[in-house]
Structure formats: C-alpha cells, structure tokens
Amino acid sequence: MQMLASKFEELFGSAPEVIASAPGRVNLIGEHVDFLDGFVLPFAISDVTTVAIARNQSNQIRTASMQKSGAIFQTEVAKLTPKTGEAWSRYPIGVIWALEISTGLDILIDGEVPLGAGLSSSAALECAVATALNSLFELGFSLPELARIAQRAENIYVGMPCGIMDQSVSLMATAGNALLLDTRDLSTEQIPFDIAPLGLELLVIDTQVHHKLVDGGYAERRASCEKAVSDLGITSLRDISVADFIARKSELDAKTFSRAFHGVTEMQRVLDAVQLLKSGDFVGFGEVVSAAHISLRDNYTVSCPELDLAVETAQKFGALGARMIGGGFGGSAIALIKARDLELIKSEIISAFMAAKFKAPRFFSALPSAGAAVIN
Ligand code: ADP
Ligand code: MG
User: Fold this and answer.
1) Helix segments in 40-83, DSSP class H
2) What is the pTM of this model?
3) Span 176-190, mean pLDDT?
C-alpha cells in the first residue's frame, strides 16, 4: 500500500485521497445457471486489486495500471462514451460513468488477481474502484447496489454481457465463507467454507487454452435451455424438479433435453452442496463438485480434453472433487485438495499435460477471503 501511494505521488504529483481493494473469486458450483434464475456459490480469493484515487481539480480522468506499464490514459470526464478508450481503462472509467461522477480524478491500479485466468480480475478492478468512490464521495450505496453499478459498467461501458455473480461476491464475501447467491432475486447467504483449518485448499488449474467454438457455442446452449422452458410450458428451469423434468423427457428433443438437464440438475447440485457444507461433509461436497464436471462435459458439452485431463488427474491423486469452471472450451478447472497433496497433484498434472502434448498449465491456490474494503 505504501508502494502504491508513493507511485501515485510520483505519477500524479499529489497524495491519494482514498485507497480501496477488492478480491477476485472462484465459483465452487453453479455453472451456466446464472441466466436460468439459478443459484451460484462463489467465494472471494485472497488476491486483490487495489486502487488509489484522488480528485485532481481538472475536467480530466487520468488512470494508470501497474499491470499496463504504468502509462497514463487520459480522457475528459464530461465526454465518457461506452466502448471507447484503451480497453483496460474501460473497467475503471466505466464505474465512474455508471456512478455519474463528473469530477476530474486520478486513479492508479495495482492488481494481484491474474488477468484472464477465470478468477475475475475484471470484477476485482470494478469493485475496488466502486468501493473507493463510494467512500470518497460519501455516496452511501449498499453492497448490492454497488454490485449492480459495477455490473452496469462492465455490461455497457466495457461491452461484456456478464452476470452479477462476480461483482456480488467481490463486494459481499466474508472470510471463511462462500456466498450463496440466488440469481432470481439476488438474495444471498453466507455458507461456511472454512477449509484452511481442515488442511484443505482449492487449487485452480489454468489450462491456458481457449478453443474456438465449433457450433455457435454459448448462445446455442442458452437457446436450448430457453426452448426447453417453452416446450414444457414452464416459466423457468428453476421451477421444475429433477424428477419432473425426467418424467417429461419425451416432450423434448435429445439435444434440448440434455442441455436443459444440466441446468436443472446443476441448480439441485448447488442446493445439495450447501447442505453438505452446512453439515461439514467435505467428502460429499467434493463428490457433488465432481458430478458437476460430468454434467458440464456430457450434458452441456462445454468441456475439452485439457479440462478433462486436469480434472481426472487431480481426482486420481487425491482431490476430494474437481470440475471445469467458467464458460468452457478451455480456461480453468478447480480441485478441492488436501494442502499436503498440493505439490504432488501439480506435478502429476504437469506430467500428464506433457505426455498429452498440451500447453503447460498455470496453478493458483485459493482460500475463502474477505470482500472489498476501504484500506485508507
Ligand atoms: P477475468 O475477469 O477472468 O480476469 P476478463 O477478460 O473478464 O478476465 O477481464 C480481464 C481484463 O480486465 C483485462 O484484460 C484488463 O483489460 C482488465 N484488468 C483486470 N485487472 C487489471 C489491472 N490490474 N490493470 C489493468 N487492467 C486490468
Ligand atoms: Mg471477467
């Protein structure tokens, strides 16, 4: 933090007025159900993005990031236009735009959340800026309101149609818990996930591959879920039980059934996972996480050989549960592991990837940590 403050002074010639940070996140379970009114269960990781901000008595926003060579991007605060300006600068400036702030500002960003690894460095950045500005201008927004504002910045100013999960957990997480978020009404509940004292941790395996989608990908899968809803004459896949859905299988074509089956069962898996965590059953919880991978692979068909190999290798060498995370066709997988198995599992995954001639993966360890905070 001292480093950030002195770098800020060096760049902008004044001291920061506020410093705030916000974490990245991992979603334990609840994949591809945020657009189905489903439940998700993310937790905040300990890696944060920190921002230092001061008013600059001009009509300009000047912003720089240590992860983008520290060069200043400058733009007039009265002329903010969505989807313009340097790509990375749209995240912090989008938040200023969404908050309708009309004062000139200097902003310096320093993030430790790896960019583009599926850990949501984008929400960490937005939420750090939103938290800092909420404090600096005494705006009084609640955490759910700030989550909406940060999402609006990303949806409209950046142009990325993300859901509300990443911003919600980055702002509302508490240490040692995961956050159950109901995407239907945005209600939340803290769910105990204090794994460190149990000798457990979450390993993130970034395959570093992003396969091109061969068949229209996500939009097509989403359309299948919508088709299931209309063919069955229901309002949402949220409103049908797994048993009722199976009983009505003959009313759907095979592809529609299998993709919507992922949605229906995934929502149930999140609820099952929550019950298992509440009763401290981490073995049962791990099994539910692994079942989610099978469904993403076989029903929703968004996995790829690299993700499958990462998951299978982690399971073979002691993981309690493992699955691919995020959109799919590449990106990252997670594995709930015993901390003492960390080096073994990493080296076995590296060997398996080498043998399969896959690109070398990156690894991150994650423990459930606190959400955004003003730190100065
Ligand atoms: P993810 O959120 O999974 O990390 P995204 O593509 O959604 O991946 O967001 C990554 C983008 O967010 C980066 O390409 C960059 O534009 C922006 N970003 C995130 N963190 C920083 C940072 N510390 N400095 C500058 N830009 C950042
Ligand atoms: Mg993102």
Assistant:
1) none
2) 0.95
3) 96
